[in-house]
Amino acid sequence: TPKFNLSYELGKNNMVYAQAVKGFRLGGVNGAIPVNLCRPDLDALGITDAAGDFGSDSVWNYEVGSKNQFLDRRLTLNVSGYYIKWKDMQTTLTLPSCSSGFRTNVGKARSVGLELETRLAATDSLDLYGTLGFTDSRLTEDVPFTTWEDGDTVPAVPRWQISAGARQGFRLF
């Protein structure tokens, strides 16, 4: 899986970067399904044996961003933007003729997003954290035997992600 990264320090506490990274998830093996009951749907998909294996999916991630520290390194501010191309998505298909499901590789998607991450050392022992993420993730082709069509949002990918936290350190002894 290749990774290409280019970074440049603007100063002691500020850096900008660009990277391109390829990633994947391993494939696997399906359990048995009743092939005779499911034959009409399997034929429509051009599949002879759904109990076989499914392959890896893959993504290319293109990202630019900056990592910065201010206030004598007490404030960290990181910002990034990304574009992801996802192909051969691992998807569970349920066959209507027999109500059986199996994992296979179908569909493509793309995601565009922004992330903001901060940390503030409010005192010598108290750190405050916050993150904000926005993702527009869309299918770029129809997925058979589902209601998912080209242009739909990718299921289970949230549009917004927000988190906040605090960490207080203290000595016991």
Characterise the protein shown here:
The chain is mainly beta. Helices cover 6% and strands 58% of the residues. The strands form 3 sheets. A 7-stranded antiparallel sheet has the order 1-2-5-6-9-10-11, with no helix packed on it. A two-stranded antiparallel sheet has the order 3-4. Strand 5 and strand 6 form a beta hairpin.
End-to-end C-alpha gap? 47 Å
Continuous helix count: 1
Could you report the average pLDDT, rounded to the nearest whole number? 92
Question: Structural class, from secondary structure content?
Answer: mainly beta
- Could you tell me the number of beta strands? 11
* Rg over alpha carbons: 22 Å
Q: Which spans of ≥5 residues are poorly predicted at pLDDT below 50?
A: none
Helix content bin: under 10%
- Assembly context of the chains: single chain
Label the overall shape: elongated
Note the main sheet.
Answer: 7 strands, antiparallel
Offer a quick outline of the entry.
The chain has 173 residues and is mainly β. 6% of the residues lie in helices and 58% in strands. It has a seven-stranded antiparallel sheet, with no helix packed on it.
Topology:
Elements lengths: L2 E9 L2 E12 L2 E2 L5 H11 L7 E2 L2 E14 L4 E13 L2 E6 L4 E6 L2 E14 L4 E14 L20 E9 L5
List keywords for this structure.
173 residues, mainly beta, seven-stranded antiparallel beta sheet, 1 helix, 6% helix, 58% strand, elongated
